[in-house]
Amino acid sequence: MNKHEIAKILLHAGAVTLSPDEPFTWASGIQSPIYCDNRLIMSDPGGRRRVAEGMSEVIRTKYPETTLIAGTATAGIPHAAWIADILGLPMVYIRSKAKGHGRSKQIEGKAKPGDRAIIVEDLISTGGSSLTAAAALREEGVHVEGVVSIFTYGLESADRAFEEAGLTYTSLTDFHALAEVATRTGAIRKESVGPLLDWHEKLKTGVL
Predict the structure, then answer these.
(1) How far is CA 151 from CA 63, 76, 148, 191, in A?
(2) Which of 96, 147, 140, 94 is nearest to 118 (CA)?
(3) What contacts 161, CB < 8 A, 6 or more positions away?
(4) Cα–Cα dist 68/100, whole Å
(5) Cα–Cα dist 24/26, whole Å
(6) Cα distance between the two ends of the chain
(7) For 108, left (φ over 0), alpha (ψ -120 to 50), or beta?
(8) How many CA atoms lie within 13 A of 81 on its CB side?
(9) Measuring CA to CA, which residue among 39, 54, 47, 43 is closest to residue 122?
(10) What's the pLDDT at 103?
(11) Across the beta sheet with 91-94, what order do the strands follow?
(12) pLDDT, tens only, 96-155
């Protein structure tokens, strides 16, 4: 399953909206022509299965020593559950911070010292949630094999952050594949492709 096939699944499910003429505003204040909500894949049985199979295949081939699937809260949780089921592996999920009541746990489920975990994300922008999850697992003595996500913006700042943390990540699709499929299928106009790619280059290199 290649990047373009996954991009087509995301667009079909409505998980990605491209709007070059009326950009969305991210929490950071950046004006973005793309809005990615991979939680919508949950409502597409065929698409979510193909995505889960694609991520499972990445884990089988690139991270064969994995013993634990760890989803990030909240968007990574359902994908982690489907992957864990396909691979027949235990699963946990990781909050962005420890909850303030009960046992004040950040990791839900059983993560044991010596486990070799893959972190499952829906998308990677800055990489912050992945690094937070990795730190929580490492505190429990878990070895983090790497991170697998559905989509990545391919930001240079994220690549540096992962490298500094000693982590690798693999994404099923990326911004350029989405732009190509969206153009081919008519989801965006051909004249909008240039400005869209220019915006991404600025975002990627930190100019925005």
Answers:
(1) 18, 12, 9, 24
(2) 147
(3) 126, 127, 128, 131
(4) 25
(5) 6
(6) 32
(7) beta
(8) 10
(9) 39
(10) 62
(11) 107-108, 91-94, 68-72, 116-124, 143-152, 169-174
(12) 887 655 566 899 999 999 999 999 999 999 899 999 999 999 999 999 999 999 999 999
Tens digit of pLDDT for each residue in 37-49? 999 999 999 999 9
Burial 54-64 (b: 16+ CB within 10 A, else e): bbbebbeeebe
Query: Which residues lie closer than 8 Å to 164 by C-beta, 6 or more apart?
Result: none
Query: What is the model's pTM?
Result: 0.93
Q: Is the pLDDT of residue 167 over 80?
A: yes
Q: What is the DSSP string of 131-166?
A: HHHHHHHHHTT-EEEEEEEEEE---HHHHHHHHHTT
The Cα 197–Cα 70 span in angstroms is: 33
Tokens of 112: 């044991």
Cα–Cα distance, 45 to 48 (Å, whole number): 5
Listed residue (7, 107, 6, 118) closest to 54, CA to CA: 6
State the pLDDT confidence band at 61, using cuts at 50, 70 and 90: very high
